[in-house]
Design goal:
The protein has 124 residues and is an alpha+beta fold. Helix content is 26%, strand content 43%. The model has no long low-confidence stretch (mean pLDDT 86).
Length: 124
């Protein structure tokens, strides 16, 4: 995490931009702590991809089936429903190498989806 400059540094929430597309673009990444019903703690990594209206739910489910790291979900961004790429990592097994691997896998993948659907802009 030392190589990322934080845009958001609040209790239980960090935000930064990760390079994508050989450094020509950036992908906003957010890390937050979440707990399950048993009290186990997880680090959620998420990145907004495109507004939901630009994407088909069936495509999301097909992409999820093929993904080995992360999954597509819907969440609001400034009141607009967005497709987000997310991963939940248990603190009990979390280490820096695995976290960097997940970030370095998610950011370029999310950016490729974004470029395919929003070729004129880098919205996330």
């Amino acid at each position: 995490m030392e190589r990322h400059t934080l845009m958001i540094d609040e209790p239980f929430l960090l935000g930064f931009e990760s390079p994508a597309d050989a450094g020509n673009r950036k992908q906003s990444m957010f890390l937050a702590e979440i707990k399950d019903s048993d009290g186990r703690r997880y680090l959620r990594i998420e990145t907004p991809v495109v507004p939901l209206e630009d994407f088909d739910a069936e495509k999301c489910l097909r992409i999820n089936l093929m993904q080995r790291v992360a999954y597509l979900a819907v969440g609001d961004l400034d009141g607009t429903p967005y497709i987000k790429l997310c991963e939940n990592m248990a603190y009990s097994t979390l280490n820096e190498q695995e976290l960097e691997y997940v970030i370095n896998t998610m950011a370029p993948f999310a950016d490729r989806i974004e470029k395919a659907l929003e070729p004129d802009g880098d919205i996330a």
